[in-house]
Amino acid sequence: MTTILSIRDLRKSYADGFEALKGVSLDIEQGEILALLGPNGAGKTTLISTVCGITTPTSGTVTVGGHDIQTEFRAARRMIGLVPQEIALEPFEKVWNTVRFSRGLFGYGSDNARIEEILRKLSLWDKRKNAIKELSGGMKRRVLIAKALAHEPRVLFLDEPTAGVDVELRKDMWEIVAELKKAGVTIILTTHYIEEAEAIADRVGVIDKGELRLVQDKNTLMAQMGKKQIEVMLADPIQAIPDSLAVHNLTLNGNGDALVYTYDTHADRTGITTLLNDVAQAGLVLRDVQTRQSSLEEIFVNLVSGEPA
């Protein structure tokens, strides 16, 4: 794989001494989707703003496609598309002109077919003659996405792109992301909808208090840090877990009709066979058995809180 975005020891400090980024280093491969997760104020937007040239770094280097973001700003920025959190659009401009102007800003010639394709994909074609001020919040978010795609970027940053928007736009957005990935576009997204990151990301990065805590293949991360649980459903509810089962550290669900057992998939023995034998010895009748794995959200919360997954 080819590295398209390289970040080395990136730092951002402010006059009051606050460190928004603390030596972030990261390589992102061409065509991958990286989900950047972290609580509010963790440094996600500062990192994106710095890479995109909106914020000047205190120290460190960033290259995009081999172009340094400071010494070769125009070449680097031309490769980047950004969908910001905040909606900042000229209210009296038409949708069509807004998107076309964005393409021209990066030195690309007029391409009406390309603009039409983007507007149709984002369900904006019928609104192309409308002024921005006439659009709903969700439609304005679609225009931001269209602007970011207008100059055909090779790296696309999506900073909370679906926060507060309708389900239809969210679905459209992820379909477009899938198509862009197929075309070799690299995508870095931040999101509070962690289930979406879990569904589409190749790798997951966790940033907290300006530090990149880890970057890991999503499936590997879940395998290494996620716990697995087996839920033993009982034919008849019970009031309490029998003393004979205390060794298994079980929990009883709210209805009293299921025992939950947590185990390590990497251990030599899971203890499941012994558990089921002991359940039967305790006189409990099984109705069903199900397994589940910790979600990416649970893993993320544990990482940020510093607790074991």
Automatic annotation (TrEMBL):
Q: Which domain of life is it from?
A: Bacteria
List the InterPro entries: AAA+_ATPase, ABC_transporter-like_ATP-bd, ABC_transporter-like_CS, ABC_transporter_ATP-binding, P-loop_NTPase
Q: Which terms in the Gene Ontology molecular function aspect does this entry carry?
A: ATP binding; ATP hydrolysis activity
Nuclease listed as a keyword: no
Q: Which Pfam families match?
A: ABC_tran
Q: Which PROSITE patterns match?
A: ABC_TRANSPORTER_1, ABC_TRANSPORTER_2
What EC numbers are recorded for this enzyme? 3.6.3.-
Question: Where does the ABC transporter domain start and stop, copy by copy?
Answer: 5-234
**If you read the UniProt record, what top EC class would you report for this enzyme, in one word?**
hydrolase
Q: Which UniProt keywords apply?
A: ATP-binding, Hydrolase, Nucleotide-binding, Transport
> By what name is this protein known?
Daunorubicin/doxorubicin resistance ATP-binding protein DrrA
- Organism from which the protein derives: Ruegeria atlantica
